[in-house]
Amino acid sequence: MTSKKVVELFYDVASPYSWLGFEVICRYKNMWNIDLKFRPAFLGAVMKGSGNKSPTMVQKKVLYMDKDLNRLRDYFNVPMQHPADPIGVIFKKGSLSAMRFLTAVQEREGGNTKAEQVSRELFLRIWNEDKDITEPGSLSEAAVKAGLSESEIKELLELYTSPKMKDKLRSTTQDALDYGAFGLPLLVCHVNSKAEVFFGSDRFELMAHCIGEKWLGPQPEK
Ligand SMILES: N[C@@H](CCC(=O)N[C@@H](CS)C(=O)NCC(=O)O)C(=O)O
User: Fold this and answer.
1) Sequence-ordered list of residues with C-beta below 8 angstroms from that of 201, at least 6 positions apart, any chain
2) Which of 73, 92, 158, 219 could be disulfide-bonded to 88 (CB atoms 3.0-4.6 Å)?
3) Where in the sequence is the active site (predicted)?
4) Which atom of ligand 1 lies nearest, measured to the CA of 53?
């Protein structure tokens, strides 16, 4: 049996395209011979660190993205709805607490299962239910829906604001920048000791080609 290729997914729940990339790679994680590693990162710091500017600074990009995301919702079968105030949600409230919380979930678990469930609940809160993701009560609601126990959640609420989790999120974000990130999602495939880096949720076909796997579209089981 050939060894599994490591694929890292850098994502932020404030990024709708990250949600699309996240759901697609989750659908393929057991179909492809890959070892998927979630890398919760902070988009604001990726933008700043790379000298990029948010696409929302350009009115025509905003109008295009609005249409693009509506089309992609059906194509990817991801239940995305725009929040009433996207700028307030993404920039004023932001995702720093949520990404620290996810960092803590992953650190505590040492694996992917709970991180996957809590990530999905946070994506749903912001991009489907138009609900807060900044307050401890909101993070805890997402964790309850993801099936975490009361005692796990209590521990996570103590852990996520710790210097250790802040440093961990910072270093993951730095890893993304070191791979050349200027936005998210970022997929990094390790092939023959080389890192192949893909930006966006629209590069899976090429990525599959590079790792020698078959691309069956964003809904492979349909
Ligand atoms: N074409 C990509 C676009 C991804 C994208 O626009 N991501 C945003 C965050 S939601 C970003 O980081 N943009 C930076 C840029 O476009 O320079 C896709 O379909 O996934």
Assistant:
1) 17, 18, 20, 21, 24, 72, 76, 185
2) 92
3) 15
4) 17
- pLDDT per position as a tens digit, 11-70: 999 999 999 999 999 999 999 999 999 999 999 999 999 999 988 889 999 999 999 999
- Assess whether the C-beta atom of 176 lies below 6 angstroms from ligand 1: no
Please identify which residue in the block is written with the tokens 């902070």. 42
pTM over cut 0.95: yes
Percent of the chain with pLDDT over 90: 93
* Ligand 1 neighbour 47 (Cβ under 6 A): no
Nearest Cα residue to atom 1 of ligand 1: 200
54 in contact with ligand 1, CB cutoff 6 A: no
Mutate to test the pocket of ligand 1, among 13, 17, 53, 63 (most ligand atoms within 8 A of CB): 17
pLDDT at 107: 95
